[in-house]
Amino acid sequence: MRNVWLVLCAVLLSSPCMAWNGRGHAAIAALAQANLSPATLAQVEVLLRDDLDRYEQPSGRKSLAAVASWPDEIRDVAVKTDPAAYRGWHVRSNQVCGQKLGSCKDGACVDQLIIRYAAVLRDHQQSPRARNEALKWVVHLVGDLHMPLHSGINRNGGSAKVVLEGFDLKPDATFHTVWDGQLLDAALKGWKSGARLESVERLAADAPTQWMIEARDVALHDSYEPLAGFVCSDVRLPEPFVLDAAYQQRSVPVVRQQVERAGLRLAQLLNEALQ
């Protein structure tokens, strides 16, 4: 593996303000970069050559892991003047107990945006800046889509309050933030993925939507069903959700599975889009 974990560690050590969610995005991006073809890697290097940060200043970032959280960074700036900026872009509210997909107004939801930005990457008539930003969106959103609660929710949604056994959580901690944060942290700690992209069939045009449906099912079976008293019904679960040690331990292989799926699929998508 092309020093993927050395790259990841360098990114994390140089970014002390990066949230654990950012660490997950960096892990996925680093795994993807380790599985790019030489030709794709060369194109990625060109697209990142003049990369800009959230303030549209030269960023000096040269790897997918380094730019993986750029969409969160620009949102943090934008919401200071527009609280609705990028609302709904990183998720799709698919009910875990149903088959109907959540709303996606004007195509502004995670799976449709991946499809849109992948098309920009494929189009060499687009400006270098447009393709640079499309690359960063694709890297980030493929990661978001594979985090279970970005693709599937229950009646309580991801905003349900939680108690995480063994942790002193902040008052605003939710089921969603714990899955993106503490549970992700525990799964990544000391873990090195050896996953490699094998020879596979070309991706279908709606592959991101299919990945999202799979992640919705992961949310049902691995995020919600292990909760005490959970059943698929119209009844909201009582809050706070208690996530005991057994629940936390059970989440580790789930998070690792989703990180590997995201990293390898991202690599395949980029290999096809930048061939």
Offer a quick outline of the entry.
The chain has 275 residues and is mainly alpha-helical. The chain has one domain (4-273): Orthogonal Bundle (P1 Nuclease), CATH 1.10.575.10.
Fraction of helical residues: 40-55%
Tell me, what's the shape?
globular
CATH C-level class is Mainly Alpha
Low-pLDDT parts are: 1-20
Summed up, the domain count is 1
Mean pLDDT: 91
The biggest sheet, with number of strands, parallel, antiparallel or mixed sense and barrel status, is: 2 strands, parallel
- How many helices in DSSP terms? 12
Read across the widest sheet, the strand sequence of neighbours is 1-2
Order of helices and strands: HHHHHHHHEHHHEH
What name does the CATH topology carry?
P1 Nuclease
Q: Please compute the radius of gyration using only Cα atoms.
A: 18 Å
Measure the end-to-end span.
21 Å
Query: Can you identify the CATH superfamily?
Result: P1 Nuclease
